[in-house]
Amino acid sequence: MVKRRLNKLPDELIVTILSKLPTTFKESVATRLISKRHEVPWNLAQDVTLEDNDDDESLTSFVCGSLLSEDAPVLERLHLKLTRNHSASAIDFLVQTAVNRNVRKLRFHLFGRTLELPNSLRTCTTLKSLILRDVSIEVVPIGLRLPSLRSLHLFSVKFSGGKSVPSLLRICRHLEYLVINQTIYDVDGDTGEFAPLWFCLPSLKSLHLCSVIFSGNNSITRLLRSCPVLDSLAINQTKCDYEMFEVVLPSIKTLHLLSVDFSGDESVTKILESCKALEDLVITRTSYDNVWLFNITVPTLKGLSINNVKVKRADAPGFVINAPALERLNVKDTVSDFLMFGYLPEVTTANIEVSCDQSENFVGSLAFMQHLSLCSPTSKTPYTSGTVFFFLEHLELCTCSARWAKLLVSILNDAPRLQSIKLKLKCSAGFKRPMELWTEPTVVPECLLKHLEILEWREYEGTEQEMKLAAYILANATCLKMATFSTRSGDICTELNKLSRVSEICQLVFE
Questions:
Q1: CB under 8 Å to 157, separation ≥6 — which residues?
Q2: Pseudo-torsion of CA 503, 507, 510, 511, nearest 10°?
Q3: Cβ of 31: how many Cβ atoms within 10 Å?
Q4: What count of other Cβ atoms lies within 10 Å of the Cβ of residue 403?
Q5: Residue 80 CB coordination number (10 Å)
Q6: What's this model's pTM, rounded to 2 decimal places?
Q7: Residue 111 — left, alpha, or beta (φ > 0 → left; ψ -120 to 50 → alpha)?
Q8: Cα 52 from Cα 82, distance rounded (Å)
Q9: Residues 431-450: pLDDT tens digits?
Q10: Distance between CA atoms of 45 and 81, rounded to whole angstroms?
Q11: Burial environment of residue 473 by CB neighbours within 10 A (0 to 12, 13 to 18, 19 or more)
């Protein structure tokens, strides 16, 4: 059927159409239509934000443009940002206009006002994403279904009138991505652990819970039971009880525990045990998480990231990590007093910044690394004697510790394939402790004789001990191609230029 533009229709028919419009828009739309009957139709956008400002220009432009156009493009996104009260029929009319243009993303921001989910969504087969922000929902129309919806975001949504989050989820059976933020999650009826599920989300792959208050027994357990193929779970600033994971989650591969209020050490253990296929874990600690020791024992884990930089706690020593399949490791912990790694044969890249002064507990476990970035107070014995960093090729070492040079010399002796060294003040403390005396190796390390090609030294100050170390490396690194020093002093650059270089191809660079 060939579409005809509304401004070409007979006047009698236009009057009939206008009579069907919600009262909110009759006068403004009618005026707009009359002014446009002999003009080129409004150029339709594919991403539209409508705000109810004083002249309602954006609202009427959108409605009129959609009605007047004979070839309106697909509407990618409609954002209704309404600060005033509007009738359900008025909002439904706007949504119907978007549905007629095959809208794919729909967003409501009502600043706390009530939203009745539009009935016009019943006929929408193109809607993929729905975002509700700061709205109140009292009614979920009986029979309403959103079969094409794949992504749902609930930000500060308040349910009343006996409705709750499950009331909405049950009409979105094909969801793949769900975010619940600053919203109360409640369930009605039988809430026992093995009570029949009120709804099922058989396609949900990603779930993000942020500042969610769970009301009712086993409400979070029942939510997780309804997601049989869940792949990614993020819990942020939400209380997690020991009982919350009394359900096995065999499909979860990615888990984020961000500023979570646990009930104790055992709740962490229970969560990790329930994720039988976990591959990536991210942990951010807070001063109120109620955990004394994080015991991360996950045989399938491949990536681990820890962030613990909040206010120091006297009752939380730190982390024990046992993950033999781990490949990627990032730890930033300026709070804990304890860190211990188990056997980590698969880790090739690690970035570690810690404040605990027990380097002998974990540095030796990093022997399989190819890329190592390390910031740690160094013990008198940096790591267990006999440790060999056979695969280490790239080393970045923070210069904040008083014994950092001793740690460097130890690694030089035990890393025969080391190719590049970067020395810089990288920790969050932002200051150096006075560098202690260090002793030259009795035998030149193999890496200096055969492999080291790059030396980069940031915040170089030219102290006696620093100059001695620089001179040693330049005098013994036979394959060195480039040595870069970052310094503000021209005199220091002059002194470095005077140092002997065994490598004939070595270039000195000053920044």
A1: 132, 133, 134, 135, 136, 137, 165, 183
A2: -120
A3: 12
A4: 21
A5: 22
A6: 0.82
A7: left
A8: 6
A9: 567 788 888 888 999 999 99
A10: 17
A11: buried
